[in-house]
Amino acid sequence: MRGAGMVALLRSRVRVLAVTLGVLLPAAVAVPAEAEASVLPISSDPFTQATCAASATTNHHTEVEPDTFAAGSTIVSAFQVGRIYDGGACAIGFATSTNNGASWTAGLLPGITKYSGSGPNDRATDAPVAYDAAHNVWLISSLTLLESGGVHGNSVVTSRSSNGGLTWSSPPRRRPGVISTRTGSCVIRRLRVRSTGTATPSGITTEPGICSR
To answer: How far is the CA of 95 from the CAs of 54, 61, 150, 168, in angstroms?
Structure first.
């Protein structure tokens, strides 16, 4: 009888534990409502193999290697659109918000590649963003690529926007060099742009700001 009593007691405790866990576990794994907010898409690849067949394995529905810079309530992002497996992309895209990310305007930078605004280049890559606070101008620099004779770097070009990053000009050709973003005498961001003439160029790097007052 003593053994049977112990078994009954253990079974009772197991039932109590099971009921307790059933109450506590859902609360433990509950996700706060604010963490369940839906994702806001801000841009998408508009190309297909019919409109950008840079190679047999161009990866459409892709936007990769983004760079983003913010000033005040404006956020500007630049990225590759239609990634090509052996270097670069069909175009450089942008997405801009002027209200801290509540809404976005997106598109393709014109005049860089032949797939967007009849540009002279086959592909583009490595697109950092900078802001010229002294002149209220946004800048996106891109490394361009040509395919003839093997994919290789061709030039560095800079697109400009004077209306808060909402529209962009076709860029003039730019030699490798340094582009500085200044506020008065203070360089708040410096972009060093260079082309190595290879299929995998080292592209553009961001250097620390320099302030000389």
So the answer is: 23, 16, 31, 11
